[in-house]
Specification:
single chain, alpha/beta, Sulfate adenylyltransferase, Rossmann fold, 19 strands, 36% helix
Length: 396
């Protein structure tokens, strides 16, 4: 984005840029701009903005000595360049600058300002004591292209009942698959928001994206499912997460947001000495929020079952514990196919361990039955066939 040299520069990180773009595209509407001091005070007090639940003020208060100097001296009407990782990514026309209470902001976002809290620990160094508001524009193609993609598909399918589902898929497992199918049974179209954290120790986003797209293309009506990257920055935190998820889904065109019954943010909480739940706080959003069953594999039923309908005890259940499955994958071991579909495992392992085998063709020909034809095979093909061998039962 071009810039005049006379503009002073405000430095923001990728997380702030993504959040600004999210609001710019209207995806957290009715919040469509940075809030001024008066609006910020009202939202922090009432947890409402323009009649819609909103947990805390939407502010830009980047930390850093140079940023603080710029904001302390900024004049109304001054245009500042927004810079991320050395690149000019947008502009803001200053309307007002004002001091904020960093401790109060942390409490509004996370419910605590305790520095031992992981979210607080990561966010505190990013927050400056001076906020700026005013009209801004940023360039961030990832979000704008996703919005266009979803809107076009809704129009093409003439979809009326559109469900949104937030998913990390680290990795995509059989329980996720069953939930996706269950949601799709009651919708014309499903928008899968694939979460893309800025700080993660899990599988890279591109690996998760390829795995879930492979599942959709091969095992679902692909014209009824669309995958959208959702960069869940620090604002999607604490019990605020589901409120913001609902706003994002609604503004993408969804008529319903589906969450799992074991979602960590589904529980009740106290606010102003009153017991609340996400369903209480989301009424003003005017969007249906419903839950989907959590599935396990029962070795008595010999299939995936809901924990609410299976008559057998927990000792008969295999749980889809993502961290445990990831330990197998990190060790280079294919998870059993009752946990992860073999095509998904093959996609993930072949990406994580490229050129793992010295001569994949020789290994393939030695271990895998074939039609007697000379064919070249990839590592992904080999993993799929290897799972077939694992599942051969005549000698087991």
């Amino acid at each position: 984005m071009a810039s005049s040299r006379k503009n002073r520069q405000l430095y923001i990180d990728a997380e702030a840029l993504s959040t600004l773009a999210l609001v710019q595209e209207g995806l957290i509407s009715p919040v469509t701009k940075l809030m001024n001091k008066q609006e910020a005070l009202e939202v922090n007090e009432t947890k409402v903005y323009k009649g819609v639940p909103y947990p805390f003020a939407f502010l830009l208060s980047p930390n850093g000595k140079r940023n603080q100097e710029i904001l302390q001296s900024a004049k109304q009407g001054e245009v500042l360049d927004l810079v991320t990782e050395g690149n000019i990514v947008g502009k803001i026309t200053v309307d007002e600058t004002f001091e904020i209470d960093i401790q109060q902001r942390l409490v509004c976002i996370f419910g605590t300002a305790d520095p031992s809290h992981p979210g607080v620990k990561d966010t505190m160094p990013r927050l400056g004591k001076i906020a700026v508001c005013g009209d801004y524009r940023v360039k961030y193609p990832l979000i704008s292209s996703s919005v266009k993609k979803v809107k076009n598909l809704i129009a093409e399918q003439n979809a009326k009942k559109i469900s949104g589902f937030m998913l990390y898929a680290n990795p995509l497992n059989r329980s996720h698959e069953r939930m996706i199918r269950q949601i799709l049974d009651h919708a014309d179209m499903l928008v899968l928001f694939l979460l893309k954290p800025f700080n993660s120790t899990g599988l890279r986003y591109d690996i998760r994206y390829e795995a879930i797209n492979s599942f959709i293309e091969n095992f679902l009506p692909s014209n009824r499912v669309v995958v959208v990257p959702l960069e869940n920055s620090y604002i999607f935190a604490g019990y605020n997460e589901l409120i913001l998820d609902a706003l994002v889904a609604k503004n993408y065109g969804c008529s319903r947001l589906v969450i799992t019954k074991n979602h960590t943010r589904l529980g009740s909480f106290y606010d102003k000495n009153r017991l609340n739940s996400i369903f209480d706080n989301s009424k003003g959003i005017k969007m249906k929020i419903s839950t989907v069953d959590h599935y396990v594999y029962c070795n008595k039923c010999r299939t995936l079952v809901s924990t609410t309908t299976c008559p057998h005890g927990q000792h008969h259940h295999i749980h889809y514990h993502s961290q445990s499955i990831m330990k197998l994958i990190r060790a280079g071991i294919m998870p059993p196919s009752i946990l992860v579909r073999r095509e998904v495992s093959a996609s993930v392992l072949s990406t994580l361990y490229p050129d793992r085998f010295e001569n994949i063709q020789e290994l393939y020909d030695a271990l895998v039955p074939n039609e007697g034809l000379m064919e070249e095979h990839s590592e992904e093909d080999f993993y799929v066939k290897l799972m077939d061998l694992y599942q051969t039962t005549s000698l087991t």
